[in-house]
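Quick sanity check, Probable F420-dependent oxidoreductase, MSMEG_4141 family:
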Amino acid sequence: MSPSPGRYGIWRHATGLTPELAAHIEALGFGAVWIGGSPPADLELAESLLDATSSLVVATGIVNMWSAPADEVAPSYHRVAGRHPDRFLLGVGVGHPEATSDYTRPYATVVEYLDRLDDAGVPVDGRALAALGPKVLDLSRERSAGAHPYLTTPEHTRIARERLGPGKLVAPEHKVVLDTDPEAARALSRPRVQTPYLGLRNYTTNLKRLGWTDADIADGGSDALIDALVAHGTPEQVAARLDEHLAAGADHVCAQVITAGMKDPEDDLRRLAQALGIA
């Protein structure tokens, strides 16, 4: 059975995740935490977060297929899922062409990686795929529990749901800033979007598929693009933006809370949880 992450989760880079923060996220009522930043094949961080919680689903967002071979990830998956049944979701993806000199035949690489997970007994409903374009969205429907799109909008979520159909997980990430000053929010958001994502072909190609132009993507992103990719405003306004993904067909949406100066996110997490009605 595939883990059930609930309606809302938190996406956070591995370097900013601790067992204590995971316990706080669970106590606030979020259903899942997603580990970003290409966690290694040992999955030790995921295991520590699960050990510190009792019901929270932990997902990787995502294990990179180039840096974490399937033959190493599979035994780690079995160790973690065996200790915490129905609470661990293995998110995997092929990453970015700019990140490795070996980036060739990306679609074939994804297929071969999934084949190796199959051979090692990693269940289809225990894994999800990072998916943006139509071919990989289709593959996520056929070979996994569903899709984990990153740096997307509710418009993309609608497309993803149409391609995956019913019964498959659609779990987009969306960045948020709890700040009612639009200029201050964009000043905080733009660097997190520009570097590295507006320099990575898979993301810019997807944005263009959604109707954004080269002019929108240039120079750190137009205000309209930044506002589409990073929800800002009061906690209630941000919560309403996240709910647009659910209305578009998502089962689950994970918020990446951006704070100024690496400030501890716990207060913003609490305010967001209250606005979502889960705290």
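Posting the structure with no commentary besides this: The longest strand covers residues 8-13.
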